């Protein structure tokens, strides 16, 4: 029973190494998490820029579609005018 409650230098070194290892592990995880947060902030900035570019492209597409509709309507009016002139 005496050996069960005895505390040796080896036990102390083992306990201290576990504690130091645990602290180092926690610090490493914290640094990794903060690094990932910085990387994600950069990705978010790039996504905002991409969103602005995509919105600009969509607006240009809408303008071109509207211009195409106007040109088709104008072409239709010209065709009607030519048909009326040919009948006269």
Give a brief outline of the structure.
With 88 residues, the protein is an all-alpha fold. Helix content is 90%, strand content 0%.
Characterization of this structure:
By secondary structure, this protein is mainly alpha-helical. The chain has one helix and no strands. It has one helix at 9-87. The protein is rod-shaped, with a radius of gyration of 38 Å. The mean pLDDT is 90.
Strand content: under 5%
Radius of gyration: 38 Å
Shape: rod-shaped
The major sheet is characterized as: none
List the main descriptive attributes of the protein structure presented here:
single chain; 88 residues; mainly alpha; 1 helix
Write the layout of secondary structure elements.
Elements: H1 9-87
């Amino acid at each position: 029973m005496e050996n069960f409650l005895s505390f040796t230098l080896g036990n102390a070194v083992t306990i201290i190494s576990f504690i130091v290892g645990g602290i180092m592990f926690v610090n490493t995880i914290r640094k990794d998490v903060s690094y990932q947060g910085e990387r994600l902030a950069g990705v978010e900035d790039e996504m905002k820029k991409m969103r602005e570019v995509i919105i600009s492209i969509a607006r240009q597409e809408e303008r071109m579609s509207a211009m195409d509709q106007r040109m088709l309507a104008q072409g239709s009016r010209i065709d009607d005018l030519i048909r009326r002139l040919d009948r006269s």
